[in-house]
């Protein structure tokens, strides 16, 4: 695999942004690695999103995602979005526009990445799990599968925990986001009503996680709506040991064609 550490100008944010990208490399003599690359030279891509207290470096620092992706010939794009909840902030920058519109176009202009729905996937943990579900449910035509790990599925239910960040992003705790474009429960209903094909969904949360009850409510909501959902839980809490194991499972689960 090749690792790219990229700084680039974002029109949506109005500043220089950062991302890490790992690209498949076909190797024969590299010791301890099974590395593959697409014969078409347009790589299938996983957009991998970070949580509230982290940045674009965290998945490489805390997990073996590069090793897991290598054997499947999967490119991985890891952008930095600060503490934005992947949202066009009420009092701040347009991170939803950045991650949902600008980032994929820029990545495909920089690197040989496929633009086909069946070759594009999104995953993330905690705040990144919220961003994952928001992308998958808002733009089902772009992603074949999405995996939310220990996700914030109901920001309003956790508003007190996120404090000023919540106020800056969504406009204040007195502002109801239920029923809006920020509400994952509503987005799931709207997608079902639209008749568009939803991505395959994977959801994980540990029973000791402070987000567990919210995840169970969202799981049950998806199942009532008839979504194709792979759900996993265990006794873990909110930590990188479980996310390392889960991202390995997610990459194995992804419906990569001819892999």
TrEMBL record:
| Any GO MF annotation of the entry | hydrolase activity
Q: Which UniProt keywords apply?
A: Hydrolase
Q: Does the keyword Transferase apply?
A: no
Q: Which InterPro entries match?
A: AB_hydrolase_fold, Esterase-like, Mycobacterial_A85_antigen
Top-level taxon in the UniProt lineage: Bacteria
Per its UniProt record, what Gene3D superfamilies does this chain match?
A: alpha/beta hydrolase
The record's Pfam families line, in alphabetical order, gives: Esterase
Name under which the protein is recorded: Alpha/beta hydrolase
Tell me the organism. Answer: Paenibacillus thermoaerophilus
């Amino acid at each position: 695999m090749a690792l790219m550490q990229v700084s680039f100008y974002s029109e949506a944010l109005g500043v220089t942004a950062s991302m890490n990208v790992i690209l498949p490399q076909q190797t024969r003599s590299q010791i301890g690695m099974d590395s593959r690359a697409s014969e078409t030279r347009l790589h299938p891509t996983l957009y991998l999103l970070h949580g509230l207290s982290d940045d674009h470096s965290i998945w490489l620092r805390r997990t073996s995602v590069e090793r897991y992706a290598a054997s499947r010939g999967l490119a991985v794009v890891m952008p930095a979005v600060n503490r934005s909840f992947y949202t066009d902030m009420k009092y701040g920058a347009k991170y939803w526009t950045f991650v949902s519109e600008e980032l994929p176009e820029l990545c495909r202009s920089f690197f040989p990445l496929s633009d086909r729905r069946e070759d594009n996937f999104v995953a993330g943990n905690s705040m990144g799990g919220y961003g994952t579900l928001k992308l998958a449910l808002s733009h089902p035509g772009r992603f074949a599968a999405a995996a939310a790990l220990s996700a914030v599925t109901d920001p309003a239910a956790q508003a007190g925990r996120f404090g000023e960040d919540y106020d800056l992003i969504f406009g204040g705790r007195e502002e109801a986001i239920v029923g809006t474009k920020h509400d994952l429960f509503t987005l799931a209903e709207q997608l079902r009503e639209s008749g568009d094909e939803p991505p395959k969904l994977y959801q994980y949360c540990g029973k000791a996680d402070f987000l567990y009850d919210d995840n169970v409510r969202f799981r049950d909501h998806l199942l009532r709506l008839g979504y194709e959902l792979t759900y996993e839980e265990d006794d873990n809490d909110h930590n990188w040991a479980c996310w390392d194991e889960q991202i390995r499972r997610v990459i194995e689960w992804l419906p990569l064609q001819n892999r």
